[in-house]
Amino acid sequence: MPGLFNVLDEYLHRVLKKPIASIYSMSNLVSFEPYVDSTMRVFFEELDRRFVQTGKVCEFDAWLQMFAFDVMGEITFSKRLGFLERGEDVDGIMASIWEHFLYTAPVGNPALGKPDCIAHMAIRWDKCPGLIFC
Predict the structure, then answer these.
(1) Phi and psi dihedrals of 113, rounded to 5?
(2) Looking at the predicted structure, is the pLDDT value of residue 129 above 60?
(3) Is the Cβ–Cβ distance between 39 and 71 less than 8 Å?
(4) Which of 31, 95, 114, 119 is the 20 to 30 Å CA partner of 24?
């Protein structure tokens, strides 16, 4: 089934893109800036309070993901989802996405039908669960 990101025909791509193009216009994206700014203030306050002032180690990748979820909450629902304030994975959302990825990564990999790939995956699985290198 052709989709916006996998269609090769330029005309069909243009037809699929037209209904949503205005959403990604610069003027529309700039309108989201106050939501991002608001969440950035909370992000920096939490990093300062939890890590700068205490000297504790920050898992920055997790905090960036929490920031992204709270920005999307601000844009979509006009309120943060609470990831930053709580400093944790709210309702296991991030964990459930990772669990889904562990399933979809192998299933979506067409090379898995190759016997040598399956053997290679088994060797590497213990080093990096969920990632498949063929």
Answers:
(1) -75, -10
(2) no
(3) yes
(4) 95
